[in-house]
């Protein structure tokens, strides 16, 4: 490489007498490199890179769209690039490959005029890789530009009739195993799913998620939030306000923690758990894997009128610290502890309600984490499912007879959801509740009894919740 560019080194927008590289595209490149080379998370690194590059408004939005889209579409873009490069892609320098991906993304998905997409990308290649790399990038992108998106789909995707999983994997740019897992989960939700349903879900994963605020009960109201510009009421949750444009960090309530940034799917999980009927006392609540504290903060508010005390636990000190921050100004009784939920510092049967929002693969929130589909592996599922079983056993031991455990994940994978719960039910001593009547405001909740929310159906993150009442 001509230059070693860490994602923080900037601004280097000139080399010799050449014209400047477009700062938005350079920032997108920096985000890609940080994700690919340093294993950064795009949603964390992008705002940092954009701020350091002093990009605002449309330029900042273009950088995010280009970087996120390129990360999501990597599978498809690589299939196209492989058809245009006369050696295996693995032999192309990673930074040059990222430049090629950015160029192909603009040509095929962003409607950037071809001369601009090629010209600007070649300029970027010259900056990051020197003259010979820029000629290579120019030649490859000209080949990409010979076909439009539909033609490329015909060329690189397996036939939908004979290999529907492989077809969707390429066309919607997801690993094969994830396409299959999502299809299986959708199929079990309503008895069956067509490949078109699955494609709708995969399409939703490739779109940006909107920002939703939560007016935490006891700390503010939805009506207060609706006074703010660019807001309207949420679709399902009585505490939700959608923010269309504008930065949540500029809202005073968000800065103080009275208002949270929280997808409606997560809000509905906490609300359903709080609404489940239980006999007897209802004052001891546990959130067993609480970091960073979004659901804990909502539960604390929901528990207020019942005089409930919330114990929020996380295994890592840092994550427990984030929970403490989220709960900091919350009225009522709450306590945050760093502990391993599989062997928590409490006596068996101590709690009336327990939330176990288990660590999971996050396959329901792929739209928010553009690179994560390429990082996750089927081995992660097996490892997490084992931990989820241990945590659920511990949650069921922590709740009293008659109390309720909510088992939630932001993954719809069957091995992390219904299979974990089915094992717990099979061991006896628990009754599975139908979650759907607890959320009458939400349409289309499938066959039940568990709650499953989908980006393409409900517009929320993909969330799962089973409610288990302990019977002995
Ligand atoms: C899905 S997140 C919880 C999200 C949270 N409920 C919210 O809404 O903000 C899972 C959390 O479980 C924590 N965790 C993982 N293993 C754990 C364990 N053995 N005991 C307690 N917490 C654990 C992780 O650190 C992570 O913060």
Automatic annotation (TrEMBL):
PROSITE patterns, sorted: NOL1_NOP2_SUN, SAM_MT_RSMB_NOP
Protein name from the UniProt record: RsmB/NOP family class I SAM-dependent RNA methyltransferase
Active-site annotation: 410 (nucleophile)
InterPro entries to which the protein is assigned, alphabetical: MeTrfase_RsmB-F_NOP2_cat, MeTrfase_RsmB-F_NOP2_dom, NusB-like_sf, NusB_RsmB_TIM44, RCMT, RsmB/NOL1/NOP2-like_CS, SAM-dependent_MTases_sf
MF terms (GO), sorted A to Z: methyltransferase activity
Location of the region described as Disordered in the Swiss-Prot/TrEMBL record: 1-21
Keyword RNA-binding: yes
Family the entry assigns: Belongs to the class I-like SAM-binding methyltransferase superfamily. RsmB/NOP family.
Keyword terms of this UniProt record: Methyltransferase, RNA-binding, S-adenosyl-L-methionine, Transferase
E.C. code: 2.1.1.-
Gene3D superfamilies, per database record: NusB-like, Vaccinia Virus protein VP39
GO biological process: methylation
Keyword Transferase: yes
Ligand binding (S-adenosyl-L-methionine): 289-295, 314, 340, 357
SUPFAM superfamilies: NusB-like, S-adenosyl-L-methionine-dependent methyltransferases
Domain SAM-dependent MTase RsmB/NOP-type per the UniProt entry, residue ranges: 187-471
Any Pfam family: NusB
């Amino acid at each position: 490489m001509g230059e070693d560019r860490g994602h923080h080194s900037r601004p280097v927008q000139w080399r010799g007498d050449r014209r400047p590289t477009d700062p938005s595209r350079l920032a997108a490149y920096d985000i890609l490199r940080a994700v690919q080379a340093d294993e950064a998370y795009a949603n964390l690194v992008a705002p940092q890179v954009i701020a350091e590059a002093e990009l605002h408004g449309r330029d900042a939005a273009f950088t995010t769209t280009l970087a996120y889209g390129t990360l999501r579409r990597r599978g498809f873009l690589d299939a196209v690039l492989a058809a245009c490069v006369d050696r295996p892609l693995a032999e192309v320098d990673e930074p040059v490959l990222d430049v090629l991906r950015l160029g192909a993304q603009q040509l095929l998905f962003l409607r950037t005029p071809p001369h601009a997409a090629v010209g600007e990308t070649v300029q970027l290649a010259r900056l990051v890789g020197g003259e010979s790399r820029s000629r290579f990038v120019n030649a490859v992108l000209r080949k990409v530009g010979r076909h439009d998106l539909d033609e490329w789909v015909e060329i690189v995707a397996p036939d939908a009739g004979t290999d529907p999983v492989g077809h969707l994997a390429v066309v919607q740019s997801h690993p094969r195993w994830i396409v299959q897992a999502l299809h299986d989960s959708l199929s079990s939700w309503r008895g069956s799913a067509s490949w078109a349903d699955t494609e709708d879900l995969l399409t939703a994963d490739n779109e940006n998620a909107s920002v939703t605020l939560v007016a935490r009960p006891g700390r503010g109201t939805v009506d207060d939030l609706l006074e703010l510009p660019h807001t309207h009421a949420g679709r399902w949750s009585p505490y939700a306000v959608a923010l269309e444009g504008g930065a949540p960090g500029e809202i005073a309530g968000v800065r103080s923690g009275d208002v949270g940034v929280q997808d409606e799917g997560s809000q509905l999980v906490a609300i359903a758990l709080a609404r489940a009927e239980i006999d007897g006392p209802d004052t001891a609540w546990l959130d067993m894997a609480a970091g960073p504290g979004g659901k804990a903060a909502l539960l604390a508010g929901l528990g207020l009128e019942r005089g409930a005390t919330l114990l929020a636990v996380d295994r890592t000190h840092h994550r427990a610290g984030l929970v403490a921050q989220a709960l900091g100004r919350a009225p009522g009784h709450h306590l945050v502890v760093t502990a391993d939920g599989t062997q928590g510092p409490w006596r068996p049967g101590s709690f009336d309600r327990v939330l176990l929002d288990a660590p999971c693969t996050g396959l329901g929130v792929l739209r928010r984490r553009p690179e994560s589909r390429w990082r996750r592996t089927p081995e992660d599922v097996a490892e997490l499912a084992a931990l989820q079983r241990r945590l659920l056993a511990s949650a069921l031991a922590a709740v009293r007879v008659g109390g309720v455990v909510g088992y939630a994940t932001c993954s719809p994978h069957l091995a992390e959801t219904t299979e974990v719960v089915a094992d717990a039910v099979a061991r006896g001593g628990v009754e599975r509740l139908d979650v759907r009547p607890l959320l009458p405001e939400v349409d289309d909740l499938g066959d039940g009894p568990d709650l499953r929310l989908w980006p393409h159906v409900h517009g929320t993150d993909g969330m799962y919740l089973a409610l288990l009442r302990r019977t002995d």
